[in-house]
Each structure stands twice: as structure tokens, then as C-alpha cells.
Amino acid sequence: MKKAISIIALSAALVCMVCCKGRPGAGEGAENNSTAVVTAVDSTVNVKADSTAKAAVAELPEEPVFDIVTTMGIIKVKLYKNTPKHRDNFVKLVKEKFYNDILFHRVINGFMIQTGDPYTKDTAMVNFYGQGGPGYTIQAEFVKEYTHKKGALAAARKGDIANPKKASSGSQFYIVQDEVGCSHLDGQYTVFGETISGLDVIDRIAAVPTDPYDRPRRDVKILLIKPDDKANAAALAAN
After folding, report:
1. What backbone phi and psi angles, to 5 degrees, belong to 121?
2. Three-class DSSP category at 118
3. H or E segment to which residue 85 belongs
4. Which residue of 24, 27, 93, 187 pairs with 32 in a disulfide if CB–CB is 3.0 to 4.6 A?
5. Helix, strand, coil percentages, rounded to 5, for the chain
């Protein structure tokens, strides 16, 4: 059994965002009997997708396709039109190159792989990995048919006690590696996209050796995220 995760080195003043393999939000960084994914954001300010985010998707189809180019291969994903706040925010961050050179900072085989923390660009911040973000959260967008199937993209968030409205991190997200392991998260974390190719890459990342904090022992990095121009042009032409 993997150890439950708590970020012991952090000050008690830091609030952790937990996606727990048992009960989402359980413990808020405390020890428990489940495998946990601990993340956080710089601020608990709940914001709507702003005009910048909306402008970023103006020339894209309703469900744009992006290539997540990692050091272990390419994961091609499609964002959902029925989660527009998360879609627009993701597109905005991609255009800003926010995700370039960010690590997968939490990897749990049989569960998920997690990324999106800008602190992981700085090795001096290693004890704070999982705590970074753009300084805002996104309103939850739960859609019943969007489930934690293999390859699903979902937003990380703080636990229920500190975050009863289940607002999402402004940048941290995870990709489901095992549907069974993540099925209990349906309706608790916003699923805003899916993998359309590269499931094998997700499996390879999930299989890397990790330390007791579920951090890969060798860096697994997002080099960049870029729109799939061909797929997006075809989608626009079809409409």
C-alpha cells in the first residue's frame, strides 16, 4: 500500500488541495489510509473565465485539440465545449506558454498523473511542489456524462472542507491513468477533456519510479502544449 500523502515540510498556513484516492478532500494533507494526490493554489479567489481567456479561443473550434508534448511522448487531448470556463482558461494558459517546462510532480500508477504547478520550474521550490498556481481558481463545471475514464483531463482542487463549492485550481490538472482507480471522483472534480491519442504515454509516465511523495525520481516534463492546427482546422471546416 502506498503511503498516504501529506506535505509535512510546509507551514500549517498553507492550504492543500486534495484529490484523494478514497474520499476527495479527506484529511486535507493529514495522514489517512488512502493514496492521496495533494495539490494547492496560490489563492482561493473564485473567478470566471475572463475576457483574455475568451479571446484566446475565438479562432478555435468549440472542442479544440491540443498536443501535450512531454519528455516521454505526445498526449493529444480534446477539450470539452460544455466546460467552457476550464476550456477557455486552459487555452489562455497555453497561449501564455504557462505550461512550458512544467513537471509531472505527482504520479501514482493505477490512479493518475498530475501536472500544472509552476513551482516545478524551480528546483529550489522542491518542498513546495504541488502548491503553485496562477493565483486564482475556476468555478466547478460538473457534467454528468464527463466521467473519469482512462485519459480524462480533470482539474485538481482543494479539499471539501476548505473548498465546499469544489472550485478548481487555476492551472493544475491530472490525467486519469486507471478508470477504476478514479471512478469514485466522478461528480467531485471537474472533468474538462479527454485523451484522443497517447494513452500509452500516460501509462509510461505512470510507471516511472517515484519517491515517498509520489514525485518521479527522474524528471518527466511538459516541454510545451500546442494546438493541433490540422485537427482544429478540420473541425472548423466541418461546422
Report:
1. -80, -10
2. helix
3. helix 84-95
4. 27
5. 25, 30, 50
pTM of the model: 0.82
Q: Which amino acid is at 30?
A: A
C-beta of residue 189 within 8 angstroms of C-beta of residue 154: yes
Q: Does position 176 have pLDDT exceeding 90, yes or no?
A: yes
DSSP helix/strand/coil, 6:
coil
* HEC assignment per residue over 183-238: HHHCCCCCEEEEEEECHHHHHHHHCCCECCCCCECCCCEEEEEEECHHHHHHHHHH
Q: How far is CA 99 from CA 151, 160, 185, 235, in A?
A: 19, 26, 24, 24
Compute how many other C-beta atoms are within 10 angstroms of the C-beta atom of residue 123: 10
Q: What is the pLDDT of residues 130-151, one digit of tens each?
A: 999 999 999 999 999 999 999 9
